[in-house]
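Bench log. Compound arrived from synthesis this morning; before running ITC I wanted a structural hypothesis for how iron/sulfur cluster sits in the protein. Inputs:
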Amino acid sequence: MEKPNIRDMSLKEIEALITSLGKEQYRARQVMKWLYQKDATSFAEMTTLSRESRSLMEEKVIIAEPTIDRIQSSADGTKKALFRLADGLFIESVLIPGRNHWTACLSTQAGCAMGCLFCLTGRRGLTRNLLPSEITGQMTMLRRHTQEGPDIKNIVLMGMGEPLANYDHTVKAIRILTSDYGLGFSNRKITVSTCGLVPQILRLGQDICVNLAISLNAPDDRRRNDLMPVNRKYPLKTLLSACRDYPMPGRRMLTFEYILMSGINDSPEDAKKLARLLKGIRCKLNLITLNEFPGSSFRTPSKVTVRAFQQILLDHHYTAILRASRGSDILAACGQLSGTG
Ligand code: SF4
């Protein structure tokens, strides 16, 4: 039988492993630190553990991470990393530059089953869920092998896949990313983006405290049904009720992502409808102009249309940010990741 990967284990699971080997429970915290803070890739490096403990662990588990196949740079500074997984599949992550820091956009699935019409990842379908080690491994490898690594301050789970369709592995990965013994990110710096899986949104709010972004993209059910099949199962009323119930400590706000597509959802009437729809929800809106990809029938709206749309939301007292599309020349922008480099 194949040995499990220790990077797929939570602190509790490593504690159970260590105690089953007859060793002290607190050693698990040391192991986590070796893995995530000192970047150990073998048990031999874990010199705070006895030689016997190290060889006992080596008998039970392996240490494995995805490998970086190649990194592409966009003219605007965005970088896209292509990762090879142990079974030969490829996934992608994106590094997005900010003023003083970088944001890592990580994948949670190889492909995606949600079928959003405007998304290249969705067109390819789902191959499989990523393991916790494959989600955190994108971050650990980027941190270790890119110049920008030490300056990655934010993580968005917005790459390939629907994070909440891979719920258990995503939550476990977030727990490792935010653990004091793991990667030590503040949960305020982590955002989960979903197309609107309502039961999982409710569960997430109870299980962990991270920022939530909803990929909305239409101001009514008729158009959202057409663009995002998930809406037929969880229509806007149900989705927005879950959003209202999502726990948001302090001054945090929900984010609604709205991809503007020419002639589809970008009229002044649509902006007014959207403003009415989100009334009473503590939120901000990220307006993203569609990133065209080969074979896509949707078109990018004009700058004038986009500005007019934004202005209506500002006039309704929303925080509506026009997100510059980044990395589209290397197919690294929203909805363009395909795992093919
Ligand atoms: S937009 Fe997100 S949820 Fe929709 S198909 Fe693409 S990756 Fe999946």
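What the model suggests: The pocket of iron/sulfur cluster is lined by residues 112, 114-116, 119, 121-122, 161-162, 195, 215, 335 (CB under 6 Å). The radius of gyration is 21 Å.
ITC booked for Thursday regardless.
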